[in-house]
């Protein structure tokens, strides 16, 4: 189940809105849009943790295993 509130189109639109507001010098609007993006990102991480915990656990485990392999490879090369 994907997190629909922060799909690719919506996230890209928010980033474009932030860039346009910064380019136009509308810093309050950029801050408001960035705040919205941050809030949606936090909701997305909560969604990921709650509903897709198996993928989250797999991702974290793969990261640790990758770091272990990288460290061993680095030590062997040295």
Helix/strand layout:
Layout (H helix, E strand, L loop, with lengths): L7 H16 L3 H25 L1 H25 L1
Structural class: mainly alpha
Strand content: under 5%
Q: Which regions contain 5 or more consecutive residues with pLDDT less than 50?
A: none
Count of DSSP strands: 0
Please give the radius of gyration in angstroms. 18 Å
Total domain units: 1
How is the biggest beta sheet arranged? Answer: none
DSSP summary: helix tally: 3
Overall pLDDT metric: 90
Percentage of residues assigned to helices: over 70%
Shape: flat
Order of SSEs: HHH
Oligomer: single chain
Straight-line distance between termini: 44 Å
Explained architecture:
- By secondary structure, the chain is an all-alpha fold.
- The protein has one domain (4-77).
- 85% of the residues lie in helices and 0% in strands.
- The protein contains three helices and no strands.
- It has helices at residues 8-23, 27-51, 53-77.
- Helix 1 packs antiparallel against helix 2 (27-51) and helix 2 (27-51) packs across helix 3.
- It is flat.
- The mean pLDDT is 90.
Short description:
The chain has 78 residues and is mostly helical. The chain contains three helices and no strands. Helix 1 packs antiparallel against helix 2 and helix 2 crosses helix 3.
Features:
mainly alpha; 78 residues
């Amino acid at each position: 189940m994907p997190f629909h509130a922060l799909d690719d189109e919506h996230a890209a639109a928010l980033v474009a809105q932030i860039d346009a507001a910064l380019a136009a010098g509308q810093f309050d609007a950029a801050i408001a849009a960035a705040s919205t993006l941050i809030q949606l990102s936090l909701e997305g991480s909560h969604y990921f943790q709650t509903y897709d915990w198996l993928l989250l656990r797999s991702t974290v485990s793969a990261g640790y295993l990758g770091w272990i392999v990288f460290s061993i490879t680095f030590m062997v090369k040295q």
